UniProtKB/TrEMBL annotation:
Family matches, as Gene3D superfamilies: Metalloenzyme, LuxS/M16 peptidase-like
Domain Peptidase M16 N-terminal residue range list: 36-176
Family named by the database record: Belongs to the peptidase M16 family.
Stated name of the protein: Peptidase M16 domain protein
Length: 440
């Protein structure tokens, strides 16, 4: 089994040069509203079956957070025809792998199989949608799993609560203000009926996109898709929530003490536009310019030359409705958080008032090109991109054309977008500090 899985991985990686070409796909809808995307590539004998649901933590009741992520776990518990505890065994015993992820805007499930198991993948995902078993034993089991995940990844992880502290200050109205993993108290107090109602509301075919990518024949795949997914009844229309945030009147200064760290951290957070906006692409390039790699401006200045920081970072966390641009660093020795912030602000000010060099601009273009190619370098990666571009961007063909947006961004735009969003009076300044011990 290990040899087979290793062989599949090797095939996916070694075939990357093929997938760097234009991605051909076909899309259509079933009568029940489920969107279907097919990408046929018979070069490698693997196939990915993926279903993405347009439900994330932003769709939750503020008093019942964590449900979207909880379902990522719960819907592996079993179905009418797949016994509890058998899902992962069924996948691995047939030479496959599988997983699921949740974010603020969507929940994504997938199986990777040798191509002769396409029908198995389709049947399993149709079972998850049509015949899930949501009972008390499954809910109780997954509550323990999620509790342990939160302890491991958030509560006991160094700097594990930065996002929680930052986002609740960046957003006052939008559900992005709470974390995807949500509240354990909310999950603990939720009833079985609460979980069943969440499933009925969001896990419907008209709120999902099915992607089949890899080695298959279209006619056969379409027949199987109709057989397995066609009979599933259409659900009530899912209306995505809309929220409009007021401008940040800042800077908003926040301190948080973490018992798991010894080195303080400074973070500045700016609210930015949703991921479909052109400015979001420009902000991606700005983060690359500032902190991607040892030749980036912040790393070179603060880590390499001045030796003021152990680490610096800048990234644009774009979501469907809004983004969060985060920049910051970990100081060395006696360097203060204020000193780090001052140096970062100097580099941002240069971006806002000067054009970056032609050489730096070309480096950004090269990195954008490389990232674009890498994102579509495997069958599984293509499946994820197709689902994401359809569900969250409403433009599946971005899998081929998104790079053109990056190519068209000018140095002038980089300057102007930095000036538009990275304002010192419209940000959250988070000092993330070691916990102070009371002296007795």
């Amino acid at each position: 089994m290990k040899k087979l899985l290793g062989f599949m991985s090797l095939l996916m990686v070694s075939s990357g040069i093929i997938f760097a070409q234009e991605v051909e796909f076909e899309e259509y809808k079933l009568d029940n509203g489920m969107h279907v995307i097919l990408h046929q590539d018979n070069n490698v004998p693997v196939v990915t079956v993926a279903v993405s649901y347009h439900v994330g933590s932003k769709n939750e009741n503020p008093e019942k957070t964590g449900f979207a992520h909880f379902f990522e776990h719960l819907l592996f518990e079993g179905t009418k025809n797949i016994e509890r505890g058998e899902w992962f065994k069924l996948v691995s015993s047939n030479g496959g792998s599988n997983n699921a992820t949740t974010n603020y805007d969507r929940t994504y499930y997938y199986e990777n199989f040798p191509s002769n198991n396409l029908e198995l993948g389709l049947w399993m995902e149709s079972e998850r949608l049509m015949h899930p078993i949501i009972n008390q034993i499954g809910v109780d089991t997954q509550k323990e799993v999620v509790q342990e995940e939160r302890r491991l990844r958030v509560d006991n992880q160094p700097y594990g609560r930065w996002q929680e502290q930052m986002f609740k200050n960046l957003f006052s109205k939008h559900p992005y203000r709470w974390t995807v993993i949500g509240s354990l108290e909310h999950l603990a107090s939720a009833s079985l009926e609460d979980f069943q109602n969440f499933n009925k509301k969001f896990y419907v075919p008209n709120n999902a996109v099915l992607v089949v990518a890899g080695d298959f024949e279209k006619g056969e795949a379409k027949r199987m898709i109709q057989d397995y997914f066609g009979p599933i009844p259409k659900g009530p229309d899912v209306v995505q929530p809309t929220y409009v945030e007021d401008p940040i009147q800042g800077p908003i200064k926040v301190q948080y003490e973490d018992p798991n760290i010894q080195i303080p951290l400074i973070m500045m957070g700016y609210r930015t536009p949703g991921q479909t906006e052109r400015d979001a692409y420009v902000l991606d390039m700005i983060s690359t310019y500032l902190s991607d790699g040892k030749s980036s401006k912040l790393y070179k200045k603060l880590v390499d030359e001045k030796k003021m920081a152990l680490q610096v970072f800048a990234f644009n966390g774009s979501q469907e409705d809004y983004g969060a641009y985060i920049v910051g660093g970990l100081p060395v020795g006696e360097t203060s958080l204020e000193d780090i912030m001052k140096e970062i602000d100097e580099e941002i000010l240069k971006l806002q008032t000067e054009l970056i060099s032609e050489n730096d601009y070309q480096k950004l273009q090269n990195k954008a090109e490389n990232n674009f190619v890498n994102s579509n370098s495997s069958i599984a990666g293509i499946a994820g991109s197709l689902a994401n571009y359809y569900l969250l961007y409403d433009d599946t063909n971005l899998i081929n054309t998104q790079i053109d947006i990056y190519r068209s961004i000018t140095r002038e735009e980089i300057r102007d977008v930095a000036a538009k969003y990275l304002k010192t009076d419209q940000r959250v300044e988070l000092e993330y500090l070691p916990e102070q011990k009371n002296a007795n």
